[in-house]
Amino acid sequence: xxxxxxxxxxxxxxxxxxxxxxxxxxxxxxxxxxxxxxxxxxxxxxxxxxxxxxxxxxxxxxxxxxxxxxxxxxxxxxxxxxxxxxxxxxxxxxxxxxxxxxxxxxxxxxxxxxxxxxxxxxxxxxxxxxxxxxxxxxxxxxxxxxxxxxxxxxxxxxxxxxxxxxxxxxxxxxxxxxxxxxxxxxxxxxxxxxxxxxxxxxxxxxxxxxxxxxxxxxxxxxxxxxxxxxxxxxxxxxxxxxxxxxxxxxxxxxxxxxxxxxxxxxxxxxxxxxxxxxxxxxxxxxxxxxxxxxxxxxxxxxxxxxxxxxxxxxxxxxxxxxxxxxxxxxxxxxxxxxxxxxxxxxxxxxxxxxxxxxxxxxxxxxxxxxxxxxxxxxxxxxxxxxxxxxxxxxxxxxxxxxxxxxxx
Length: 408
Fold this sequence. Notes:
Layout: E1 2-7, H1 16-19, E2 26-31, E3 44-47, H2 56-67, E4 72-75, H3 81-91, H4 98-105, H5 107-114, E5 123-126, H6 129-139, E6 143-147, E7 157-159, H7 162-171, E8 177-181, E9 186-195, E10 198-207, E11 219-223, H8 229-244, E12 250-259, E13 265-271, H9 279-287, H10 291-300, E14 314-321, E15 325-329, E16 339-344, E17 351-352, E18 361-369, H11 372-389, E19 391-393
Parallel strand pairs: 1-2, 1-4, 2-3
Antiparallel strand pairs: 5-8, 6-7, 6-8, 9-10, 9-12, 10-11, 11-14, 12-13, 14-18, 15-17, 15-19, 16-18
Helix pairs in contact: 2-3, 3-4, 4-5
């Protein structure tokens, strides 16, 4: 038989044949042009433009099955999960089915299933502006309005005032949205690998920035030692979340939870895919595990390499969000031996807009340390260095009134 991969990643982040070097089957690759030059010996390759909206991906997959049957469909990106699930159900293939994919993608469905087991903020799907009006009357402000299938905090609004609420109504709500009560507290994230509804590996991290403010503030995600009390408590909470949702089979997961000043854990959301924002790479630096590799191998029934429960070091990832301006200077490398990975995402001379998602960054930096104290000390040293070495100048609008330029 064979395995079909639906891919929209660059080749460097998706070495499928390396991950599956001991798989004695053909591998078919359906991919976006983002993959780049294809030199690996896939049994079949087809490239699709406009990947996310191109319905031929599914139709051609059905036609391919008729001529060259395959036993599995692998898809790593969140926007491909429902597409892959539809094909599995149509072809009666194992793996995450549509009910599970929808539950892990549609946040309103997700919270309706999770809320009987785990504390959730009040929420409602928005079918009209009257629903938002009624929700605010009942729960007050602030509230959060976001897409039910959103990713990376994109198109998410925190509405704190009546004026902001009026602005939302004036521009029109649109479709596919939900509203939920704003939760005060700190944000934690939990990543791992599950088989069925059992967590086989988990990593816990804490965001330095406030919830939903990652687009405006520098953020550091510190991975916590498995020996700390918060780690055990959060893994228990997420296990309850996973048990409340339809099983995705073998899958990675990325979950976010609020910790309130009243010491209550409140569920935010969960996805049946690997974390972005270089969080998964920081997990690799701490635990020596590639979650995407293990996810792909697990689906194929191949042996897994799961990490030891007590790592010898801790790690974290720093993200500097984009802000409007022109990049004057940015270092090409960092002079610290404890920097595990540095990825500058902009160049000198580039004009930037504001960040549109939580992974829309000027740079990401993964650092390691012996413990939390050394990690925080190194983060402080890094920030002092970047304050001197990174310059983003305000962008100016063209002067059309013979007045001095104004900052945009």
